[in-house]
Amino acid sequence: xxxxxxxxxxxxxxxxxxxxxxxxxxxxxxxxxxxxxxxxxxxxxxxxxxxxxxxxxxxxxxxxxxxxxxxxxxxxxxxxxxxxxxxxxxxxxxxxxxxxxxxxxxxxxxxxxxxxxxxxxxxxxxxxxxxxxxxxxxxxxxxxxxxxxxxxxxxxxxxxxxxxxxxxxxxxxxxxxxxxxxxxxxxxxxxxxxxxxxxxxxxxxxxxxxxxxxxxxxxxxxxxxxxxxxxxxxxxxxxxxxxxxxxxxxxxxxxxxxxxxxxxxxxxxxxxxxxxxxxxxxxxxxxxxxxxxxxxxxxxxxxxxxxxxxxxxxxxxxxxxxxxxxxxxxxxxxxxxxxxxx
Amino acid sequence: xxxxxxxxxxxxxxxxxxxxxxxxxxxxxxxxxxxxxxxxxxxxxxxxxxxxxxxxxxxxxxxxxxxxxxxxxxxxxxxxxxxxxxxxxxxxxxxxxxxxxxxxxxxxxxxxxxxxxxxxxxxxxxxxxxxxxxxxxxxxxxxxxxxxxxxxxxxxxxxxxxxxxxxxxxxxxxxxxxxxxxxxxxxxxxxxxxxxxxxxxxxxxxxxxxxxxxxxxxxxxxxxxxxxxxxxxxxxxxxxxxxxxxxxxxxxxxxxxxxxxxxxxxxxxxxxxxxxxxxxxxxxxxxxxxxxxxxxxxxxxxxxxxxxxxxxxxxxxxxxxxxxxxxxxxxxxxxxxxxxxx
Amino acid sequence: xxxxxxxxxxxxxxxxxxxxxxxxxxxxxxxxxxxxxxxxxxxxxxxxxxxxxxxxxxxxxxxxxxxxxxxxxxxxxxxxxxxxxxxxxxxxxxxxxxxxxxxxxxxxxxxxxxxxxxxxxxxxxxxxxxxxxxxxxxxxxxxxxxxxxxxxxxxxxxxxxxxxxxxxxxxxxxxxxxxxxxxxxxxxxxxxxxxxxxxxxxxxxxxxxxxxxxxxxxxxxxxxxxxxxxxxxxxxxxxxxxxxxxxxxxxxxxxxxxxxxxxxxxxxxxxxxxxxxxxxxxxxxxxxxxxxxxxxxxxxxxxxxxxxxxxxxxxxxxxxxxxxxxxxxxxxxxxxxxxxxx
Amino acid sequence: xxxxxxxxxxxxxxxxxxxxxxxxxxxxxxxxxxxxxxxxxxxxxxxxxxxxxxxxxxxxxxxxxxxxxxxxxxxxxxxxxxxxxxxxxxxxxxxxxxxxxxxxxxxxxxxxxxxxxxxxxxxxxxxxxxxxxxxxxxxxxxxxxxxxxxxxxxxxxxxxxxxxxxxxxxxxxxxxxxxxxxxxxxxxxxxxxxxxxxxxxxxxxxxxxxxxxxxxxxxxxxxxxxxxxxxxxxxxxxxxxxxxxxxxxxxxxxxxxxxxxxxxxxxxxxxxxxxxxxxxxxxxxxxxxxxxxxxxxxxxxxxxxxxxxxxxxxxxxxxxxxxxxxxxxxxxxxxxxxxxxx
Lengths: 342, 342, 342, 342
Hints:
- Chains A, B, C, D: Pfam families: Semialdhyde_dh, Semialdhyde_dhC_1.
- 4 copies of one chain form a homotetramer.
- By secondary structure, chain A is an alpha/beta fold.
- Chain A has helices at 13-22, 43-46, 80-87, 106-113, 120-125, 131-140, 149-164, 193-196, 211-223, 252-262, 312-326, and strands at residues 3-8, 28-34, 58-59, 71-74, 93-96, 127-128, 143-145, 173-178, 201-202, 230-235, 242-249, 269-271, 289-295, 301-308.
- Chain A has 2 domains: 3-147 and 313-326, Rossmann fold; 150-310, Dihydrodipicolinate Reductase, domain 2 (2-Layer Sandwich), CATH 3.30.360.10.
- Helices cover 31% and strands 20% of the residues of chain A.
- The radius of gyration of chain A is 19 Å and the shape is globular.
- The first copy, chain A, starts with a strand and ends in a 16-residue tail after the last helix.
- Chains in contact: A-B, A-C, A-D, B-C, B-D, C-D.
């Protein structure tokens, strides 16, 4: 059986990544693509790398007949997303890739995003989309909120450790290295090749990055108490890939065992042999997440490193994984492609 | 029906690319992987991006039971390849990715490669592996010689034009821009990130690049007379992608029509609308080749530009396409993945 | 004696490059920096790499007291530049880096740039700024028009050959590879790291690039007849560096001799030994231009390749070289820094 | 007065960087260049970017008449360096860029480098070359041991804080991002463009990087007690630049004040306004170090980030700064060039 899929916001990177992935999916068919400012254009004009595909012409959201759609991906900016989703049919299955439905607490949303939430009804029913930890809820959900790409990476490294209490909850430091596609197709000087290539810097320093809202919510939830991590993202001269280096206090071997146990049987999470370091080079273009653990020379300290592709496992791949669950398909369907190396 | 596949020389880039592609192939199964100097290692140690795959341990060629193999890819260096292939079972289907069986004339081989050919029997039966132009021969072949990656790109741009006589055969200039993976996993100073990134240069200038042997052979064959092109490759700070800019004399519209007609129905060759320029950005990681044609401001001159991924359409993807034909599978099987962008 | 310098348009790349160079100049002092939209900001906010310098605050052009300025660099967009320069004091020495005063023929200007020229008086007195070929005129000039960066590179490769008639004037093909800083600090999707890195493409194909106006003017002038070259630029995933590959007909040895003779004694032009290929890696950040010549395997054909840094020798370094001449300083003053490698 | 300079190991990156810098130095003259395996070659063959310079032919060390040399830079591998230096004239001024004379304790040297020290006499007299903290000792020294590039960066961020006791000495985490030129001109697969570009990974995880020997020695010395930091380096897809992100406990404002005070008047160290983050983009090719401080959202925690160019301020620039002191020149001589951006 073929599922009819709509993608709203198809002119951004996560939209294009969804098309890339779904083009190889055995039972999904893209029935509608929206891009308000580029409505009327062909996808091949906006993304020439997709020119071999026979895709619907880009349209405005209002032109889509959602009664013919089985599942809708929203790859719109936050704030816009909640408005659009509030207006969609209430029975339509939706995977939202924006930040709008990630935070359970509207006050937390307003704190991190600066605007009040205007779709509280939908926000209430939304399920947090970190597939490996919300699988059953996602399978039963109508609306799934895709996670932040940094938030996903940090959680893959730390969530089982916090849940099992094998690390000191008050001493977690997360140093993240992010590729530039995480910033989207934004026209900013700092994202130009001339200004980004060949160098790197921290940004959103001091605990101001919005994905901290997700860390706070999820880590506190699994710990059963407030957990606040120290989190500093760095912008890298690369297009895809997040490397999260977590500095934690605890027994490194226990930490490794905890992660290995937590991810046993997971199709996309690979816990490396103890002492090995993962690399974003080895996950590019794929839905895999590699995790490594090592003991520091200082007794009682460990390093946990997670690597994934922000556009795939960090957003569009995760979204497809969730959609598979929501539509009763094999969770890995369309997602087992190997990374691209070199 | 599942075909058992062996890959000889699996520790190089084209070997790893074959594994990447075949891992998604519905009816191919990798039964043996050789890498003489890395025998005994797991593929995941040599190429950690493939760690999610359940692959045979790397072995020496002599350890493979070829009676259980339906088709063997040889991704070995030239000269080694001919020796290995000469010693393989005479009925084994083989796709060779080296230069050893590309040239029909042993004297031409010796001229370009500097050593006499030592497997003339096999050389005689080998079919040149440019799928779009040797489809029937390849389907019937036992031994197929994969083309040079530069040679493939240049031929996609020029071959129909030479065959149809729509350009001046004595005035063809081919300026090629090649990504570094075309040089293989070679330890040379000039291929280090520190020395290659952020700059570019021509190499093998003056008509000394070995792929000229293929151009001379194939272009002369289709023209029915000697055709020598002027060919200068340039090394680019990128990992995948060949852009061939061909400067030709002829009517640009006729040239565009000739190419469009030649590639009608071809699943992997996309001729762009007249006047548009292709980009290697739009074919990365895929088996597609994009071709553009424009008229120069100077009357009677045209530019033909072809873009492909050297590791996919330029070598391992082409090899798989040929293997599909040789084993009676759909030619596109395992090869329709979209390019990776960004 | 110290010369007081003003730079108009200091918030662009060529402006910043001028500041970088002049900061090391023994007898130039930057007295004023303008940037209309960033007036009131410090240079260190716009370009943090210059934070060690004690620079004047960015101002509007109208705020500069030009009676205190010995020479003014205009690093403004074309069209704006002519308007600004027409309004500056008529005795002020000016080096203009825009396209506005490069073309002698106002009709040619209008053809290539799409707008009529509105500063014909200044246009008449302007001297074309290709230092090595207009040295005496520049030393005596009030207004010098810096060349296009591509135009400079192509002329270094070809100008002596056209002047001496050692190549066929009707068969010149120029395939250029340009770094992205040549496009300036422009916010365009194609210049984003995510879209530019790791790939390449031709642009302005078919003879539509504006620098052809300069080639036509200068090559025709030195040839004493109309000369039209075929010119195709390609955008490279690198920040600095132009590589011009010229395909010409003529005797390669004569060509090499002609170039070697033409550039004897030139401090910035290095003609490599016959058969060697230059690389943009070896001129980055410097004012040098490397030129190589090789014979093709086809009798009577040669390749001439020139490499320079578009921001230095291709624009701001050239501008400083010209300013040195105009102010009676040593032509090489402030310009002898070695390239940055790696 | 001109000082005659020798550079041993001129075929590596730090050797080439020394030549780049010294070529602009007003009173240094390169009198000898050694490179054992490339003896007899011209520097322009080994590093074509230096072809404009009139340099001595590369020779073997034994061929140099050290009686004519005022100061010798040793840019040799560790272990080799100590042997060579032990055999040089005992009165020759030397700046060593290797690791051989950095550690005061021979046992520490053997622990981190794996071989016993064989030049203990020289080791005793060597002065640690972190200019800003050993200025007077360096001016009086015969033999100065250049610091590790990572060690320099971490110390610029942390040393005043440890000396003044404004941070918790037992809770220092240093997450370092290093460019690839720090690995030298080594032929390793992981340093190839194809394998390094577009991704990143930690290495030497668990506190095994050799520069920890320097951190332990220097931080313990200034603290007057044992101080062990947790240090994890990451390899970046860039050629130049180290970014050290230090996670510390203390009052962020005090930390900023402490650093600002410590570096007042320092010509090369720039402490940014509170809350700003430095970038390696803004120091490339220069001898500057930019340092930023921010408070984390978690009370009592701060982030200190330092950025410098590993080949300049991290090694060859530092070496020249030290040589200036040793020869009585202005410390900044030949070192005030602005960074290269973009």
